[in-house]
Amino acid sequence: MGSTATVNIDFFVILSSLLFVIGAFGVMIRRNMIVLLMCIELMLNAVNLLLVSFSTYYGNADAQIFVFFIIVVAAAEATVVLSILILAYRHLRTIDVSLFNKLKG
What we know:
- Helix 1 (9-29) runs antiparallel to helix 2 and helix 2 (33-58) packs antiparallel against helix 3 (62-92).
- The chain has helices at 9-29, 33-58, 62-92.
- It is 74% helix and 0% strand.
- It is mostly helical.
- The model has no long low-confidence stretch (mean pLDDT 86).
């Protein structure tokens, strides 16, 4: 017979905090726009993991519905950012964020 192992809520809090910190450091350190987008998505998914964890822990599905809307908004945000990135790359021939100030005026 198999035993069912339960994972404590502390594990999910620590994991989502670690994912959020990795994403935040990536946003602060990196200059590549695609990497920045991935780090922002990592931060959003860390928050989603925490919301789903607490939702499951407390037995309330309201947060899981909220997570669904966050995922939809993140997908729309990624689409808009990638289209802007393609246009900027056609103009500048780079995706380095520090050079995007050349797009002014």
